[in-house]
Design brief:
The longest helix is centred in the last third of the chain and has 18 residues. The protein has 610 residues and is α+β, with helices and mostly antiparallel strands. It is globular and about 70 Å long. 17% of the residues lie in helices and 32% in strands. The strands form nine sheets. The chain has an eight-stranded parallel barrel with strand order 27-28-29-30-31-32-33-34, surrounded by four helices. It has a six-stranded antiparallel β-sheet with strand order 3-2-4-10-7-8, with no helix packed on it. Bound molecules: (2S,3S,4S,5R)-3,4,5-trihydroxy-6-oxo-oxane-2-carboxylic acid (GCB). It comes from Thermogemmatispora aurantia. This is Beta-glucuronidase.
Amino acid sequence: MLYPIMTDTREVFDLNGIWQFRLDPGQGLAERWYERPLRESVPMPVPASFNELGAAAADRDHVGRVWYERELLIPRRLLERRLVLRFGAVAHAAQVYLNGQPLVAHRGGFTPFEAEINALAQPGKNRLTVLVDNTLDYSTLPVAHYREEQLPDGSRLVTDIPNFDFFNYAGIHRPVRLYTTPATYIRDIVLTSALDGADGLVSYRVVVDGVGREAVAVRLRLLDAEGRTVASGQGTEGQLRIKDVQPWEPGQPYLYTCLVELWDGDGSGEPLDSYEEPFGVRTVAVEDGQFLLNGKPFYFKGCGKHEDFPIHGRGLDEAVCVKDLNLLRWLGANSFRTSHYPYAEELMRLADRLGLVVIDEVPAVGLHLNLGSGPGSARRQTWRELTTAAQHEQALRELIARDKNHACVVMWSVANEPATEEEGARAYFEPLLRLARQLDPQCRPLTITLQMWATPASDTVADLLDVIALNRYYGWYVHGGRLEAARALLQAELREWMKRLPGKPILLSEYGADALAGMHDEPPTMFSEEYQAALLQTYHEVLDACPAVIGEHVWNFADFQTEQGITRVQGNRKGIFTRDRRPKLAAHTLRARWRAIPDFGYKLQPSSRE
Ligand code: GCB
C-alpha cells in the first residue's frame, strides 16, 4: 500500500486537528448516532489516544465504543478526481461513515486502511463520522481478557485487562488524510534489490488500477540522492541495473527514488499519474549462523521500543519519533524492534533515512494464557481457547503490504512471546510462517520472540525460524537480585540452544531490569539505576562469549505506561531513558559499549570468541 504523497498528479489534504468526540455508554449504534451531528461532544485531537486527555478515570478506562466526527469540506472540482480517505491507524476497530452512510470498516489498530469516497461525497460540506471500538478479546490482536461482572451493589463492571504489558491506548492514532489520484492510477510498487559486484540490480513490479488501466504505458526511472537518473525502464515488470551502486546500510543509509509514471498509450502529453517511492539497495540473508546485511555479518545493537508518550499516549508525534531515533544513534545503537505492533509509517520512513535497522513486528502479543497475567491458576490450553488465527493472517498481510519496500526492515517478527511450548503452537505458526515467506517479495528472515518457558527442551517452533529471538529476565523475574545466578542460567540456556539447533543465530531480543530514575544503591539492589546497569553488563559478558549470538536488544528504550498492577509503578520502568527521554545510568553504560562495537564483523574479532 502506497504512502500518500503529493506529486504532479496527486494532492494530499491533512484532516488532522480537533475533531468532535463522544464516549458511547452502549446505545450509540442502536440510536444511530452516525445519522446526525454528534450531540454532547467534546473536542478531541487527531492523531492521539483519547484515554488521558480528560481528567476522569472513566475516560481513561473506557471499554467499548467511542465516536469521532468532523466536517469535511470538499471543493466541487475535487470530485472530478478519484478521492481517497485514508487512516494511518485506528485502534482497534473502526467503522467509518460519510454523511451517515457506511463507507469502510477495518479491524486491527496498527495498519492503514482507505476507501474511495466519490460515491458518497457531495460538493461542499460533508459529515465524516468514525466509530472506534477499543475492545480486545481472545479473537483479536493483541489479546486481552474481556470481562463483564456484577458488583455486590448491583452495578455492572466491564474490564478488558490486557494480556500484554502496555497500556491499551485507543483512538485515531495516526494521520487521517484525503488524497486524490487520477482515474487511472498507480496502486502499488514492489521493489527488490540485489548486489552484483559493484552494481545494484533492482527488480520492480508496478500495479496499475482504474479505468483504462490496460491501455496505459508505465515508465520508470531510478534517481540517485541528487535527483540524477541512474537507470530507466518501462512496462509493469522488469529489472534495472545501477552502475557503481551505493548500498543502504547503517552508517550510510543511501536512498534512491523510484519514479513511476503512467502515460497515455501513445506516450504523448503529460503523465497521467506519477509516484515517487524511496528505496535502498541492500541484501539480507541468514547463512552459516550469521545475519548478513550486504553480505557482511551484522551485529544488532539496540532496543525494543513502544509508541508511548505522556498525554497523547500512542498517537503519532513526529517530534518524539525524531528524538527517539536521534537518541538511539547517540547510544551507538544500529537497530530496534517495533515491539509489539507495527509503528507509524512516518517513523519507518525516518528509519530508512537515518539508517536504523528494524525488526518489524505484527501486533501478535498476549498469545499465552498461562503467563503471569492470566486469570486463575489452572493450566489453560492457549491454542484451543484463542481464535486469533484469522486476525493474525490479516495483520501479517497488511504489515508486509505496507512495509515491503523499506530498506530499514530486515526481519519480520511474527509474534511476541506466544505459548510455543504448548500443544497446538506448531500447527498455529507453521501456516503463518509459510504465508509470510510467500508474501514478502524480499524474502526477509523470520523470527518469533520466545518467552522464558519456551526453553530448548520445551519450545516447538524455533526450528521453523531463521533467527531464534529470546526474551530473558534472569536476575529479574527469575532469581531477582542475583546476578551470578543470572549469568550461570543464561550461559547454560544459550549452550542448550546451540546444541539443539546448531548454526542457528540467536538474538537476545529482550533483557533488562526496572530502574526508578534517581534511585541509587551500592552494592546494587533491584530498582536502582546501578542494578539495571550491572544486569546489562552481566548479560553482555555472556553474550560476548557466545558465538551464536548475533545481537542484543535491551528492554526497553524508555519507560512506558501499562495497566495498573502491583508490579508496575506508574508503568514499566525498564527504560534506559525515562518516559520523557532522559538517560538513566544504563544509557551511559550502553553508549560506552555500543560505540565500541562495529556494525559488521563483531563476532569475528578473536576477543569475542568463547
Ligand atoms: C516481556 C514482554 C514485554 C514486557 C517485558 C517486561 O517479556 O515481551 O512486553 O514489557 O517482558 O518488562 O515484563
